[in-house]
Amino acid sequence: MSSSIHAQEQLLERIEIKSSRSLSNNDQQSLSASLLQQSDINLQQAVHISELLSQVAGSWISRGNGQESLISIRSPVLTGAGACGAFVIAEMGVPVRPMGFCNANQLFELNTEQAQYIDVIRGPVSAQYDGNAVHGVINSQPLSVFQSSPLSIDLTMGERRYQRSKFRVGLHNDSSGWLLYGNQSRENGYQPDSGYEQQKANFIYQHLQHDFDSTLLIATTHLNQQSAGYIEGFNAYKKPELVRINANPDAYRHASALRISSQLNWYQNQTTWSITPYLRHSFMRFSQHWVPWQPTEVNQQVSAGMLSKWHQQLETGSITLGLDNEFAQSELSEYQSEPFSASIPQGFHYDYSLNSQLTSVWANYNRPLNNQLEIDFSLRWSQLDYDYDNHLSNGSACTTDTVNCRYFRPADTALTFTNMSPRLALIYRLTGDSNLYIAMSQGYRPPQSSELFRLQQGQQLADLQSETLTNIELGLKKSLNWISWAFTLFDMHKNHYIFQDTERHNYSDGKTRHTGAEIEASVDLSDKLSLGINGSYSRHSYTNNIQISSENIKGNDIDSAPRLLAQVNLKWRPVSQLMTQLSWQHQGAYYLNPQNSQRYPGHNLLHLSTNYSLNEALSWHISVRNLLNTRYAERADFAFNQHRYFTGLPRTIYIGLEWQQQ
């Protein structure tokens, strides 16, 4: 083995496994975790992140218009002002946004189109990832300097004037190197006035010494999108005369983000020190087209922080101690340009700034009890401080003679949320290639700023507590040369669920339960044929009667929560130059409202992806989404006494050509 290759392997092992929160060795951990390799990403050539994460058990990324999305990981599709706080979205282990200031569509801030890999954790892991890691984590790992060709160009075209170009350029030697890569895409959209333009770029520098390594990452994204809203009417997604309607032709979303982080690791004997300082900025302006008066929201944040840890390998086991700090300055305003009614007035509804500080201390202890049994324990203490400043008049946004004003601005205040998050796991190694584990954990998320300070209908104070999710799960994993699989049973109970009641007041006394089973398997049927399976059967239900309906909903399914999700991928490689994958995707039925009186029947889709290498430098790829041209809804909803749908796209073909310097 050459010294260059050896150095590269050292760097990958040290940076990706020991010194970050990556799960590239997840088969040895007591976590429900999935890994999408670079080969999966390149074969899929996804236009939207939902196309990639459908390959992960228990996950549904509900595609909105353009690049918009809502997330479901071992959960319903969570909506509402702060629902996005139930997930951590990270790049190289660093969350893309500060705690308390998430956005439901923040997945498009990741360059997943060109990731080295994407790992997904299901269930609460706040002990490892801090608050917001309640239902799951999505982490995108940037490309490695040492595993990428020095120069490449990829051009893709598709229907509705879809165009995408990707590039990569870099240089490295045995111990250091740099890589610049990015992509730009545009599409006219399926509905009128629903196109988008998007640009993403990453710069990475890596350096390796005997007792030190470092990774510098600069990431930026920009989105300019015209947004189409729901189509309305029962089964509207099945009706050709309705599927292309855009009732909100003036809706839009403009967003940009910039992140800089540097992972630094020092090694001495059995000790590792690691620090990751980071800076982040994001900006977003969009029209709230889902409500009739369509106000405009503008939000932005600037934040800085540091993740630091000390790891000691013991004679038996290991111990890790960590300290995380974060500071953020955020701003948000909501403005309505046209008059609508006395209780929904023209002008500014909200305009406030928010300073926040997060401090977390955590520890992990791992110890083998004997040759087969291992214990793993983690504990995190975290405190989040908010300092809120209202820039408008306190109280009602309406005139003094208006009764029941929609918008209410609380006075300046400071709030603190303190939480503890434990995790305990026992791992029993049945054989060298299989293990059984049982894990108990609790995740939490502090209330998001929008839940605390964007009050409505005269609510003067949102006295909210942090949501907590307590989980117990049992898992079995096995890996052989020709087959690998993981099976998990879970039972999760959520307390202090934050919701908006029928009077549009925010409360945190909701309780829900989430139970189910997940499976992921990969089987080599022959040297040319392989089968990949992922699926989940789960139930997400209300366990108390929260006031979001005039009916008693205790025991009902939570809306937008299919019980059955599955995907089967059949890969065929008749020769080394050709790879083809046929995918069957199933989404089960789900209810559209808390009363469980309205229902979407679910759907089945077929997709095809092919990659063919013409020579060592040149290859082409083709993907066909919705091969059978099925009429379906990306998401169904029932609101304002009306069925609403995001239209599923018809059969769509994308063709691309890639050149790589050898």
UniProtKB/TrEMBL annotation:
Pfam families named in the record: Plug, TonB_dep_Rec_b-barrel
Organism: Neptunicella marina
Domain named TonB-dependent receptor-like beta-barrel: residues: 180-627
Top-level lineage group: Bacteria
SUPFAM superfamilies: Porins
Name of this chain's protein: TonB-dependent receptor
Cell compartment(s), UniProt: Cell outer membrane
Family to which this protein belongs: Belongs to the TonB-dependent receptor family.
PROSITE patterns hit by this protein: TONB_DEPENDENT_REC_3 (PS52016)
Membrane topology, as annotated: Multi-pass membrane protein
GO molecular function: siderophore uptake transmembrane transporter activity
One GO term describing the cellular component: cell outer membrane
Matches recorded under PANTHER family: CATECHOLATE SIDEROPHORE RECEPTOR FIU, FERRICHROME IRON RECEPTOR-RELATED
Residue ranges constituting the TonB-dependent receptor plug domain according to the UniProt record: 30-137
Record key words, sorted: Cell outer membrane, Ion transport, Iron, Iron transport, Membrane, Receptor, Signal, TonB box, Transmembrane, Transmembrane beta strand, Transport
Top-level taxonomy: Bacteria, Pseudomonadati, Pseudomonadota, Gammaproteobacteria, Alteromonadales
